[in-house]
Amino acid sequence: MEPISPYPRVHILPSLLTIGNFACGFFSIVFCLNALFFSTRGQTMEKSTDSVQVSAVAMAVSMADAKGTRDNEFLSSPKGSLARSSYLLQWACVIIFIGMLFDMLDGRVARMMGASSEFGKELDSLADITTFGVAPPIIVNSLWISVMPVTSSWWGQVLIFGAVYAACAMLRLARYNVESGTADKNIFTGLPSPAAAGCVVTAVMVAYGDYPAIEAFCRYLDALIGPGMNAFQVKVNILGLFLIVPGLLMVSSIPFVHVSNRYLSGKKSFTLLVLAVILLALLWQEPRIVMFLLFNGYMVWGVVAAARKKWLGKKDPIIDEEPQSESADGDDTA
Questions:
Q1: Whether the Cβ atoms of residue 257 and residue 306 lie closer than 8 Å to each other
Q2: Is 260 helix (H, G, I), strand (E, B) or coil?
Q3: I want to staple 152 with a disulfide (CB 3.0 to 4.6 A). Which of 10, 104, 148, 157 is the partner?
Q4: How far is CA 179 from the centre of its chain?
C-alpha cells in the first residue's frame, strides 16, 4: 500500500512560473535596498568633501549613463555611488515587467495543461501581492528617500500613501479570489493589480527620463508652491502622491476591460494586428513614454467610461462591447 503523503501534489511548471513572478518582486525590493545603500554612501562621501547638499540631479542619470558604474574607481566616487543607486532603482522598475510576463504565462500554461487548482490560485495571489502590491510603493519610497533632504516634511505622507496602495492591492486580490468563480472573464471589477503596478513604475521611469516639457512643468510647480526644490525632487513628490490613485482604483467597483481575454485570445481583425505592429515599433523607439501612456491611459479610460455611463447613460464601445472570440481562455490575473 502506497503511503499517503502529507503534502499535496502540485503541477510543477505553472508553479515555477508563479514563483518566477514572486522572485521578480523579491529582487525588485532587494534592488531598492541596495540603491538606498549606494545613495547613503554617495551622500556621506559628498558631505566629507564639504558639499553643502547632495544634488538630486545626480540621481537622475539614465541607465545608459550608469553603465560605467561597474568600474571600481567610478564606484568609489560620490557621483558613481549615486549613479549606481539610480541604476538599481530603474532596474527595480524593469523587473516588475518581467514579473508581469511570468504572471501572464502561469495561468495560461496551467489551463493548457489542465492544471488549474486552488493551490495555484492562492500561490498566484501571494506572488502578486509581493510583485504588484509591495514592490511598487517601496520603489517610490526608496527613490524619495534617496533624493529628498532629511529635513523634508513629506516623508510621512509618502509612507502612508505607499501603505494604502499595498493594503488596497491586498484587498483587491482577496476580493478577486472570492469573486473569480462568478465574475465576467472579459471584465475586471476594479483596476487589476498588475496594471496598477504598471502605472506606478512607468511613472518612475518617465521621471528618470529627460523630457523638457515635464521639466518645465515641474519647475513651474516649484515656483508656484515651493520651496526651493529642483525639478527631479518635484517629480518624486508627485510620484508619492500618485500612489493613492491606482491604489484606490484597485478596490473600486469600476469595470476595466480584460485586454488579454478581449483582444489577444481567438481570431481578431487584420487591423488589430497592424495596430499591434505599430505599437511595438513605438515601444522600440520610446519605451518609457509609450508604456506610461498605455498603462495610465488604460486606467484613465476605465474611469472616464464609468463616469460617462453613470452620469450620461452612454455605454463605452470598448468595455461594453461583446467579445468577438468564442471563448475567453486568457490570463485571469487580478
A1: no
A2: helix
A3: 148
A4: 24
